[in-house]
Specification:
The protein is α/β, with parallel strands linked by helices. It is built from 14 helices and 13 strands.
Length: about 375
């Protein structure tokens, strides 16, 4: 997610949010903010120098691996860190999306003429353009290894990234020693765990409060109708979700392009129906959104008849992606849920969508954490 910050440190930005009432002061979060600042300060001290017209390779900087239960503020702190990094050679992406990109690049290389050579190294071929781009900080959200293909690749991949001066900053729900737990041939994965622990400082976030759950406690997350009064209801709900922060425009990456986000703050994104369902977006884009935010507000959802068949299909894909991930949805609808789908081309699929929308406003759904959902294929409309 692209963002910028007026603050020069994560701790300063965090304290400002507390002072504004957007956050409740949490000692564990404050200590974690200091850990992010350690990385930030080390990166600035290791800034590449210009020698004879060229930039030398920056000194390696030990990164950060922040783990903790869901809803404890890991993503919020990563937001503050990424915004505070003052140089453009940074990237933030969900772990599974990053690994999917790597696998696709390896497959493309193997099909190329260079990939058929006896001494071809697909991992080197994938890492080289990353290093040539000058990337200094790679921020990976939700580091979680469950796939043997990723498990067997990670050590060689990150050996080259670390050797090239890339600093890893990641969040996870588990400690490094529990990554790929009980996985097939896990003994082959253990060298990566050792490398990860050597190249990052492992920090726990033992906060007792699930802040994500508090955002929606006792709230009516759907509004029905049109007009200024509905907009006012959504404004109030948005401020509840963000702790009083209005948010600012931003972008998220998706399969090599950027998706504009009209407003984003505190792990939440605010879209109009037209922003997502009347543009050429597909499953991968919606999954990227679901992986980037724990809460999504979608406004001005109209009744979808035959004149909106494509928009209805995208809406179905969007809700599927948010539901599979466990993202919290706040939305305004022009008509009641059972009247949304009036297009016979999508009538069958819409039955499931309405069922999911109904569940997504329940206390049970709103009280659950995010799920690990990875798409199997790309689908565009």
């Amino acid at each position: 997610m692209a963002s910028s910050s007026p603050y020069s440190s994560v701790r300063t930005a965090y304290d400002a949010l507390v002072a504004r009432g957007a956050l409740s002061a949490d000692p564990a979060q404050r200590e974690a903010a200091d850990q992010f600042d350690r990385v930030l300060n080390d990166l600035m001290a290791a800034k590449p120098r210009r020698l004879f017209g060229f930039f030398d390779k920056p000194k390696p900087v030990r990164g950060l691996y922040l783990f903790g239960e869901v809803g404890r503020g890991k993503t919020m702190l990563m937001d503050l860190f990424f915004a505070a990094v003052p140089f453009p050679q940074k990237r933030r992406v969900h772990f599974h999306e990053f690994m999917d990109e790597v696998h696709q690049a390896i497959a493309a290389f193997r099909k190329s003429p260079k990939g058929s050579a006896d001494n071809a190294d697909p991992v080197e071929a994938v890492v080289r353009p990353i290093l040539m781009s000058g990337l200094r900080v790679l921020c990976l959200d939700e580091f979680h290894v469950h796939d043997i293909a990723n498990a067997m690749l990670l050590d060689r991949l990150f050996e080259k990234l670390f050797a090239g001066g890339v600093t890893l900053v990641s969040t996870s729900n588990v400690v490094p020693d529990d990554l790929y737990k009980d996985g097939l041939n896990r003994q082959l994965f253990l060298p990566f765990i050792a490398r990860l622990k050597a190249e990052t400082v492992v920090v726990g976030l033992p906060s007792e409060q699930d802040y994500r759950r508090l955002k929606f406690a006792g709230q009516q997350v759907y509004a029905f109708g049109t007009g200024p009064e509905i907009g006012a209801v959504m404004d109030r709900l948005w401020l509840r979700i963000t702790g009083g922060e209005l948010g600012a425009p931003g972008v998220i990456e998706s399969i090599g392009r950027e998706i504009p986000v009209p407003a984003m703050s505190m792990g939440a994104a605010r879209f109009g129906f037209a922003d997502l369902c009347e543009k050429p977006l597909g499953t991968r884009d919606f999954v990227s959104i679901a992986h980037s935010f724990d809460s999504v507000m979608l406004e001005d959802v109209p009744q979808m008849d035959r004149t909106r068949s494509d928009a209805a299909k995208r809406f179905i894909l969007l809700i599927d992606s948010l539901y599979d991930r466990g993202v919290k949805l706040a939305a305004s609808f022009a008509v009641p849920l059972e009247q949304l789908g009036k297009d016979d081309k999508t009538a069958f699929e819409f039955q499931r969508t309405v069922s999911r929308l109904t569940e997504m406003q329940s206390e049970e759904y709103l009280g659950k954490g995010l799920r690990d959902a990875v798409p199997d294929e790309t689908e565009d409309i």
